[in-house]
Write a structure and sequence with these properties.
The chain folds into 3 domains: 150 residues, Adenine-n6-DNA-methyltransferase TaqI, Chain A, domain 2 (Alpha-Beta Complex), CATH 3.90.220.20; 95 residues, Bipartite methylase S protein (Helix Hairpins); 121 residues, Adenine-n6-DNA-methyltransferase TaqI, Chain A, domain 2 (Alpha-Beta Complex), CATH 3.90.220. It is built from 11 helices and 24 strands.
Length: 388
């Protein structure tokens, strides 16, 4: 039997890792296929959405339920340490995605689009949870999937997937370390969510005027006034600045903003098409999302609208529209509804203070998001170095 070791190891562990197939380590079973009338109540029921979730599965996180007999439940019970695999997907890359069940107090059942793996030899569940997400194992797994319009992987194919595993103590050491990284990621995600909630509450208080800024000398600003949205903005047509996909390069000078998503669709060297006046609200016909753009850019698709204003603080208007967003089906109608909106405008200095306060909150949220990204990248690197 072949043996091998990873590039990065904890001290005092020097035994080679053993090559095994998943079939050497666990047995497999397909899940429940009940009549549609049986879903919605009864026992907790693990489906594909639970399997592809970022967090390990626990009883209280499972949303679905199904009514099954005690006998059927016993045959399809999910216990602590069981591995759940996605059996079917429209894309090959998603087939065989896995998660681990980590509830010691409650058990659950699982659906027909999921395969349960149950250990036949002792291993650390969290180690396996990480191992099954490494590129080498995922590539082996997806290469064994079959199908054309929909891809599937069966029990026999899963059983043939090769993995390399160390001794149980080394598995536990790796699992504990990665668990600490995951705990840090969870803490950062919680902080990011808390900051987003705080910002939402702050916006509500500011734009309802429950909370008001004062002048620098402590005096009160005048009452807010109302103006039609259409009177405040001018729309720069996108068509003269449209960039074809063939003109967008990975390494160009100017960012290309597409359909108001505020995401960089690519870069271009088409300098003659650059909108150089800094500060714009970008709105796409194909999305109800608005983005404030504060860099020189090129509009990357026809239908994207660029809004400017010399009558109000554009960043204030951007946050005002965020707070008063229009939930409307049909993207074409969204902008026409915006055009009918009445905008409440404070004094220009108060506009600036509101914009600065909310921009500072965005900066804090982005700083935490950047920390999350860096730690996720660090973890991905660890997975490639700590596993075979």
């Amino acid at each position: 039997m072949s043996v091998i070791a990873p590039n990065l190891r904890f001290s005092r562990f020097d035994r080679p890792w053993q090559a095994k197939t998943l079939g050497d380590l666990m047995t497999f079973k397909n899940g429940v296929n009940a009549d549609k009338s049986m879903y919605g109540s009864g026992r907790k029921f693990i489906n594909v959405l639970d399997v592809i979730a970022s967090a390990p599965i626990t009883h209280d996180r499972i949303i679905g339920s199904v009514t099954v007999s005690d006998k059927e439940f016993a045959k399809n019970e999910v216990q602590y340490g069981d591995i759940l695999f996605q059996r079917s997907s429209e894309t090959r890359e998603e087939v065989g995605q896995s998660n681990v069940y980590l509830d010691k107090d409650e058990t659950a059942t699982f659906g027909g689009f999921v395969i349960r793996g149950r250990a036949t030899t002792e291993f650390d569940p969290m180690f396996f949870h990480a191992l099954l997400k490494t590129d080498k194992v995922r590539d082996d797994m997806t290469s064994r999937s079959g199908g054309s319009t929909r891809y599937n992987i069966g029990q026999d194919s899963l059983a043939s997937v090769t993995v390399h595993i160390p001794t149980l103590p080394e598995q536990q050491k790796i699992a504990a370390f990665l668990g600490a990284v995951d705990a840090k990621l969870a803490a950062l995600a919680a902080r990011q969510a808390a900051l987003a909630r705080f910002k939402a509450g702050l916006m509500q208080k500011l734009f309802s005027q429950q909370l008001r800024f004062t002048r620098d000398d402590g005096g009160a600003f005048p009452d807010w006034q109302e103006f039609p949205f259409d009177d405040l903005v001018k729309t720069i047509p996108s068509k003269p600045y449209q960039v074809l996909s063939s003109e967008i390069f990975d390494k160009g000078t100017y960012k290309v903003v597409d359909q108001g998503k505020g995401l960089i669709a690519g870069f271009s060297e088409a300098a003659s098409r650059v909108l150089k006046n800094v500060g714009a609200i970008v709105f796409g016909d194909h999305t109800t999302e608005l983005k404030y753009v504060d860099f020189d850019f090129i509009v990357g698709a026809d239908g994207t609208k660029v809004l400017r204003s010399d009558k109000c603080n554009l960043k204030y208007l951007y946050y005002f529209l965020q707070e008063n967003r229009v939930e409307q089906e049909g993207y074409k109608r969204h902008f026409s509804i915006l055009r009918q909106m009445v905008v409440s405008l404070p004094h220009p200095d108060e506009q600036q203070k509101i914009a600065d306060a909310l921009a500072a909150m965005d900066a804090k949220i982005q700083a935490v998001a950047d920390q999350v990204t860096k730690l996720q990248t660090f973890k991905k690197g660890l997975l490639q170095q700590m596993f075979v």
